[in-house]
């Protein structure tokens, strides 16, 4: 069965610090997708990134970067020079195959960025 | 701007009441999902639907049912609400997966349900 583990329940940093959110997954499928979502205080989950299992290239988008390593079944998310607006709950998720787009979510990591 | 809307942001009901949570999407998506979110547990899938009148159980369907009579609308029903169903309920939609392509889900703002 698929499983996603986000071991960090809550992280607090001071503005401008770099922070890495960990995500470890388990799956028997060779074809799968990994996702990161952000949930700000407003409650609505916002899609950040999708990565398929055949693409291990790291990705950078502004202050956000993602490190996908199949060898360790990890898909970690780094925010560089954090800002107060980054404060949110972040979820890592794995899509099943086949599964019609079903997602398995981790428990989430609460990130608090203090000014 | 694409949207998933949910009928209420906050809802308070009494034990034993029948509760309807409504979700509407305007993106013509085939797939729709209902999750509940609880602290420390992340999001857990209750039911999903990949077409009108079609439904499949997720990981925690007990105590819930769903209805999808129109493509844009997916309803979650608590037949007899209980206090352990107090939670945040999130609806999502996505286009149908094609081949090995998986699309992200788009989420509504959530309904925080309290059952007294």
What do these coordinates show?
The complex is a heterodimer of chains A (115) and B (116). Chain A is mainly β and 115 residues long. Helices cover 0% and strands 52% of the residues of chain A. Chain A has no helices and 12 strands. In chain A, strands 2, 5, 6, 10, 11 and 12 form a 6-stranded mixed sheet that branches. Chain A starts with a strand and ends with a strand. With 116 residues, chain B is an all-beta fold. Helix content of chain B is 0%, strand content 52%. In chain B, the strands form 2 sheets. In chain B, strands 2, 4, 5, 6, 9, 10 and 11 form a 7-stranded mixed sheet that branches. A 4-stranded antiparallel sheet of chain B has the order 1-3-8-7, with no helix packed on it. In chain B, strand 5 and strand 6 form a beta hairpin. Chain A binds chain B through residues 4, 6, 9, 31, 33, 35, 37, 42-47, 50, 52, 91, 93, 95, 97, 100-103, 105-108, and chain B through 9, 31, 33, 35, 40-45, 48, 50, 56, 58, 88, 90, 92, 94, 96-97, 100, 102-110.
Total count of helical runs of at least 4 residues of chain A: 0
Oligomer state of the chains in this structure = heterodimer
Q: What are the segments of chain B in which pLDDT stays under 50 over at least 5 consecutive residues?
A: none
Output the radius of gyration of chain B.
14 Å
Q: Kindly, what is the distance between the CA atoms of the first and last residues of chain A, rounded to a whole number of angstroms?
A: 41 Å
What is the tally of helical segments of chain B? Answer: 0
Biggest β-sheet of chain B, characterized?
7 strands, mixed
Shape of chain A: globular
Give the helix/strand class of chain A: mainly beta
Overall average residue pLDDT of chain B: 92
Q: How big a fraction of the residues of chain B is strand?
A: over 45%
Number of strands of chain A: 12
Order of helices and strands of chain A: EEEEEEEEEEEE
